[in-house]
Amino acid sequence: MNVDIGNALASEASPGVSRASLERLDEQVAEAHERIERGMENAEHGYEALNLPERTDPDEIRAAVEPVADAEALVTVGIGGSSLGAATIVDALESDTETVFLDNVDPDWISRRLESLPLEKTAINVVSRSGTTAETLANFLVVREAFDSAGVDWTERTIVTTGDAGPLCDLADRHDLPSLKVPDGVPGRFSALSAVGMVAAAVCGHDLEALLEGAAAERETLAGSLFDCPAYAYGATAYALDQRGAGTNAVMPYAESLETFAEWFAQLWAESLGKDELGQTPVRALGVTDQHSQLQLYRAGPRDKLVTFLIAGTNEDRPIPETQVEDLAYLGDSTLGDLLKAEFEATEASLAAAGRPNVRLEIEQIDEYELGGLLYSMEAACVLAGELYGVNTFEQPAVEWAKKATRGLLGGGEFEEANAVAEKTELRVER
Ligand SMILES: O=P(O)(O)OC[C@H]1O[C@H](O)[C@H](O)[C@@H](O)[C@@H]1O
Prior knowledge:
Elements: E1 2-4, H1 19-41, H2 52-55, H3 58-65, E2 73-77, H4 84-92, E3 98-102, H5 107-115, E4 122-128, H6 134-149, E5 158-162, H7 167-174, E6 179-181, H8 195-203, H9 208-219, H10 230-243, E7 248-253, H11 259-273, E8 281-284, H12 295-300, E9 305-313, H13 336-353, E10 358-365, H14 368-389, H15 397-409, H16 419-422
Parallel strand pairs: 2-3, 2-4, 4-5, 5-6, 7-8, 7-9, 9-10
Antiparallel strand pairs: 1-10
Helix pairs in contact: 1-10, 1-14, 3-8, 4-8, 4-11, 9-14, 10-14, 11-14
C-alpha cells in the first residue's frame, strides 16, 4: 500500500498539518514504534495481532474446511470483529460461492436470507471470540433449526472458530465439530488475518498464502519514521488532523467491492480509539456513488473532516458504447474504468481546491496479496494512532455496558445496567 498525505498538509488544507509539525510528531512515532515492536516481540495482548502474518497456518484452516469443500454457499454467523474481516475479504474478491453474513438479529431479514439458501449445499461458519455473544449464539440456534427443518445435518456442515473456553467451544466439543481457535492476544477487530477472517476465504477458494504474504510485506515496512512507513504515515496524519479539528474520518473507497472495507475500518477505528473522550469518528462512504450524496458536505460543510480515499487498479474494464447523441459522444471514447478514475481525480482535486484535507491510499489491484497488505497496514496505522492518543487500543469497555443491559432485559441474569431502560426520560410528541 502506498499513501499520499500531500493534501493534508497545512500549506494545502485547513485543518492541515505542517511539515514541521509532522517532523516533530515523528519523534513520537519513533517512540511508539519501539513500543509496538516490544509488544510484538513479547506477544502482548493486541500487539500480537501484528504477528499474524507469521503465526496463521493456512494448512490448518484448509483442513478444517475440507468437509464442506462441496459448498455452493456459505453462511457466516458472527458480529463485529467476528464478521467484518471475513466479509471484507470475500466481498472484495471474486468467487462462485454465495456468501451471507448474519451479523444482525432482524427476524424478517434472517428468515429471508435463510429461505434464499440451498441448505444442503450450504456451509455454516460460526465465529465468536468470547463464545458468548448473544446475537451470534441466537442466530446460530436459528440456523441450526432451519437446517434441521430442511432435513440437513448441520453437524456435517459447520465449522466453529472460537476461544479456548465458553459455550461455543463446549458446543463444538459436544458435536465434534471441526473447530479453529481465535489466536490468543488478538482482539476480534484485529483478527481478519487469522482463522476468524480466513475460514470464509478458504471456503470461497481464495489464496490464503497470498493474503498472508501481502500482510508480511507490510510488516517489513514498519519503521521508526512516518516518512518511511505508509501505515504509520496514515495513522500519524489521521491523528494529527484530529488534533487540529478533523474529528471525522470519511473513508471512501473507489471500488464497489471495497465498500465492506469501509465498514471493517469503521469498527477498527471507532472501537480502538474511541475512549477517554478521544478518538476520530469514522464515516463510511463509497466512490463514485457518494459524490452525489455526501460530497457537498465534505467540500462546503464544517471543516471537521478528513476524507480518506482508497483507490485500486481495476481488474477488468468495460468500454462505454458509442452513441449518436452529440452531448454524450465524449463518453464513447472512454471506458467505465476511465470514468471511475476521472471521477476520483476530480473529486480529490475538488476537495483540495476547497482546502479540505484528504489522504489517498493506493493499492495496485484488488487481489489477495494487496488486500492482505491493506488490512495489515490499517491495523498498524490504528495501533500507532492508539499510541499517539495514549489510549488502550485493544479494549472496548463501553460496548460491554449495553451487552449487560440486553442480557438483563432478557432474564439472562441480574444486571443493574438493565434498570436504566425503565428509567428513560420521555418527552413524546405523538400524532
Ligand atoms: O467475537 P465475539 O466475542 O462474539 O465478539 C464480537 C464483537 O462483539 C463485541 O461487542 C465487541 O465490541 C466487538 O469488538 C467484537 O468483535
